[in-house]
Specification:
mainly alpha; 77% helix
Length: 186
């Protein structure tokens, strides 16, 4: 909850309960000030959950999530993380908080796997482009060879393109098409 701006990070369903979230933080701080053992366990659990979900919700993955169409899901999960923290700070909500935590962990793992898989596919496409580069030396026509070398270099440099509206699957297909074009010229 400490990271700003809230309106950009959290979904509307969570923002509507912002007053309750802030009060829960206040309750956690008061309990920590009293030194209660239960407050320390709750705080440790909240921090552990935040750390476990940090990889999936990392700011540097926001552009990947956007390109994959997963930005709304990531935003929903940030809100769910705050809701879990609220539930843990609310007395008597342990069972519901544990269920919500399990769902959050599963969704964060799924989101992280999707981003990692997209990264791996584009890294493999870049590697294949790099490996295909020496094959251009076997093309006899100098004009075609130079054009193909330029195309390979440009595509290698541009991958991954994470600008708004980027199509990661199309980028991967264009790399494969360029390599196929090179092999056809040999």
């Amino acid at each position: 909850l400490g990271a700003q701006p809230w309106a950009m990070r959290l979904p509307w369903t969570t923002l509507r309960r912002l007053d309750q979230l802030v009060l829960a933080v206040e309750r956690r701080l008061e309990a920590a000030g009293k030194g209660a053992a239960e407050a320390a366990r709750v705080e440790e659990r909240i921090l552990r959950l935040g750390g476990d979900c940090a990889a999936a919700l990392a700011p540097e993955d926001a552009r990947w999530q956007l390109a994959l169409g997963l930005a709304p899901e990531a935003r929903r999960l940030r809100g769910q993380l705050e809701e879990c923290a609220l539930a843990y700070a609310t007395p008597g909500a342990g069972a519901a908080a544990a269920r919500a935590e399990g769902e959050l962990r599963q969704a964060c793992d799924k989101l992280e796997r999707a981003v990692d898989a997209a990264r791996a596919r584009l890294d493999a496409a870049r590697r294949r482009l790099l490996e295909a580069r020496p094959l251009t030396g076997r093309i006899a026509d100098a004009t075609r060879r130079q054009r193909l070398e330029r195309d390979l270099d440009e595509l290698h440099r541009s991958l991954p393109d994470l600008t708004v509206g980027a199509d990661l699957a199309a980028q991967e297909r264009s790399a494969e098409a360029l390599i196929a074009r090179l092999r056809a010229m040999l």
